[in-house]
Amino acid sequence: xxxxxxxxxxxxxxxxxxxxxxxxxxxxxxxxxxxxxxxxxxxxxxxxxxxxxxxxxxxxxxxxxxxxxxxxxxxxxxxxxxxxxxxxxxxxxxxxxxxxxxxxxxxxxxxxxxxxxxxxxxxxxxxxxxxxxxxxxxxxxxxxxxxxxxxxxxxxxxxxxxxxxxxxxxxxxxxxxxxxxxxxxxxxxxxxxxxxxxxxxxxxxxxxxxxxxxxxxxxxxxxxxxxxxxxxxxxxxxxxxxxxxxx
Length: 247
Fold this sequence. Notes:
- With 247 residues, the chain is mainly alpha-helical.
- The chain has 2 domains: 11-130, no CATH class; 163-246, no CATH class.
- Helices cover 52% and strands 6% of the residues.
- The chain has 9 helices and 4 strands, in the order αααββαββααααα.
- The protein has helices at residues 11-31, 39-46, 52-61, 105-111, 148-158, 163-192, 196-215, 224-232, 235-246, and strands at 80-83, 100-103, 133-136, 139-142.
- The protein has a two-stranded antiparallel ribbon. Strands 3-4 form a two-stranded antiparallel ribbon.
- A hairpin with a 2-residue loop joins β3 and β4 (139-142).
- α6 (163-192) packs antiparallel against α7.
- It is elongated, with a radius of gyration of 23 Å.
- The two termini are 35 Å apart.
- The model has no long low-confidence stretch (mean pLDDT 91).
- InterPro entries: HNH_nuc.
- Residues 53-109 form the HNH nuclease domain.
- This is HNH nuclease domain-containing protein.
């Protein structure tokens, strides 16, 4: 999970949400509660938020990734519009742009109607998750900080420690370790270079290896927080960076 910045809400949402909200509220009054609105009528009343303008704005703000697990839903289906505070419990927030997140189907289904008003979880648009989580091999863990309880609840509610995420993390971890080994090899070759020409070539090779591994940490890359965590604890990476900077 990475920190996200919201785009400006779609103009159509801004222009029409008051009327949509009013119509939904009238139905709630008519039937006694949101739950009691006939399903067909309810779906018609709430359908307006589920449109391409909203989806495109969310996709842009999250680099096309799920806000929770950082997978890229378009690789296996469409991104879903998640209500951070569930519309079943907070119908007044059904059309609120600041209540939307882009989510994959798995995270959306896992979170379901969890009441984030009663049991909060991390909303990456509002809270920077960088200091809330760390990775132990392929498992995500809550940091021992003032956000520990919030982070643990987020992991539980969104299903961030499941086989569906362990597998891609394991595949990336293999790549990271291969890149890390290539950096170690290039560092050793640089240390053994006995001419300026050889040294220049080895510095170039080392810089290319560093650039390759750093690309995996870009916010636009899937599971980038996992990759960042790996590099932040890699002695080989920091040693190589220092050698290149001093070359």
